[in-house]
Specification:
homodimer, alpha/beta, 2 domains, 11-stranded mixed beta sheet, 43% helix, 16% strand
């Protein structure tokens, strides 16, 4: 059976041009996958025409004329703008016409609309954003990056379980190592939430390695980093901030050594190397785990490559039946 | 009146050698400041002798024979090991023989021992660790970096006030900008703690700029970043982790271009530039604000330069009567 993915053409800093570019890459790469590009036909059509003489057979444009503004609440958006690109992308998944949706639009709106329209998987209490964080040899998954501001221990336990299933299927690592983000490795460290969560994890069959600290996120000694949405969101943005500061520093210190292509005297461009590694857009977006169907949230500044990567992730989630495995895994957790 | 600073000679990864080196730099730099180097005479004496033919007049060694281990609770340490270097350093401040203490030892032990022995300033509810974070043109102060795991809104408000006084005096910026770390800039964003704290800040006379996000910590648009100890600690360590990852990346990508001194072909060493900027040890330690006297906590891996910088901070806090100003500032906060 062909897998279909709906893609919001209108969300993101570089929409619709870069979204269209990414979708074309994906359509050419995976001819077995149907891509439903959801956006304003008048905006999307000319861009498509400028990029290809013939639109690939597995790519269809779904017209979505209205636009969700920052003033629309998610409930308003669903009720009053069912023909907006985010709502329609989610609606296609809800109706089973697509297995997953991809959007680089407003994260809050995506989370709310996808949660409302798709609903939770059996047994799942809260959805969580599973975002890739750079490590020397690949990436770790941090969950939750901002869907759930005030978590209970049971939510964090489920996040660990869901992200383990995701990591195993997408990155091919059996029994990924799960760490609980804390201020120290000792049992007594941390707030009440992490202390209670820790003992739940210890009773589970997950590959729980215990407390980890902030620096461990990027060291690669842990595959899944579990934390509350407030903390995860701040960390995610702080990571971007540090990378940005380093890029500014390097650009300054290497001025004169690097030409506009960044290659003249060094044989490589250190700024670009840092940028590429630290830019989580490159890793293919962040799934909102725990929902029926799937929703992949991309960074607002995603370009074509990142959108294509996100479509790959959406496709892999569907192909590997990650959701069925999540339901099983969550059912087996200690209560 | 001469200011005296007590310095724990035994705490930190490079103690006592680097502590002694830093203390010597400071003693030579500020002859008007008395430095009480607290540590095991048998360990400290020979190092001093190897570094100088004559110990500066303003430097005295205070013998502290016992060692606090990871097994000692702070209360145990104070009761059973009053002659350990951390307890004795704090005791000198409590007795008024030193204005401030500096330690690169176990942070948890420092916080607990200093809090127990020195006590809180009038009106202050909780002490907070005020740690410098790198920005393009200097640093911002993040408070709390881990003294107080579960904060109330009134604690965060006081942190903003205390760190404002500190920033103004140490970095010479009038009415520093105070930001509340959150997941978005909008009022409705965040958890209950930040929502309630935000309205307290708005009623205060502090230069409150509203919510800030993770990336803003390093952008320099905010001088004081306020957050709960759990979040601050994780962010602090995550910042180190990102910097570490970037250093590994750069070292790999520049291999062959940089010799062991790091200077041959580039005219500069990008790895060293990043390291120096991102290494918060360089900025002179983190004061535990809110205590009578002062306690400057240094990074465990501090070397001589960082210890000397921390002594400068301790000295400046005493010279500028930062504590008196904090008491006044806290008294004027909305209840």
């Amino acid at each position: 059976m062909t897998i279909h993915i709906s893609v919001d053409a209108m969300g993101g800093d570089h929409a619709p041009a870069e979204i269209v570019a990414g979708v074309l890459q994906a359509a050419q790469k995976w001819p077995d996958t149907g891509i439903l590009l959801v956006g304003n036909q008048d905006a999307v059509g000319p861009i498509l025409k400028s990029l290809v003489t013939e639109v690939p057979e597995n790519l269809a444009v779904i017209h979505a004329p209205s636009v969700i503004t920052m003033e629309d609440t998610p409930v308003d958006a669903i009720r009053k703008k069912p023909d907006s690109s985010i709502v329609l992308s989610a609606e296609l998944v809800r109706r089973g016409e697509a297995a997953a949706m991809v959007s680089a639009g407003n994260t809050g709106a995506c989370v709310a609309i996808a949660s409302l329209l798709l609903g939770l998987l059996d047994g799942v209490k809260r959805p969580g954003i599973a975002v890739p964080m750079p490590t020397p040899d690949g990436c770790a998954i941090l969950i939750d990056a901002g869907a759930n501001m005030s978590c209970k221990p049971a939510h964090l336990l489920q996040y660990g379980a869901m992200a383990s299933v995701y990591y195993e299927n997408i990155f091919g690592v059996k029994r990924p190592k799960v760490g609980l983000l804390n201020v120290g490795v000792e049992d007594a460290k941390g707030n009440e939430l992490v202390k209670q969560t820790r003992s739940l994890f210890q009773k589970s069959t997950l590959n729980f390695i215990g407390n980890i600290e902030g620096q461990d996120i990027y060291r690669g000694n842990c595959n899944v980093v579990v934390c509350e949405g407030f903390v995860g969101n701040v960390i995610l943005k702080a990571t971007e901030g540090v990378a940005e500061t380093v890029e500014i520093l390097l650009t300054k210190s290497l001025r004169g050594l690097v030409d506009s292509q960044g290659r003249s005297q060094l044989g490589c461009d250190p700024v670009a190397i840092v940028k590429e590694k630290m830019d989580y857009a490159e890793y293919g977006g962040a799934p909102l785990l725990g929902l029926k169907g799937a929703c992949i949230i991309c960074h607002g500044r995603s370009r074509g490559k990142a959108i294509c990567n996100a479509i790959r992730v959406a496709r892999d989630i569907a192909r590997h039946q990650v959701n069925d495995q999540i339901v099983n895994q969550v059912r087996d957790l200690p209560q």
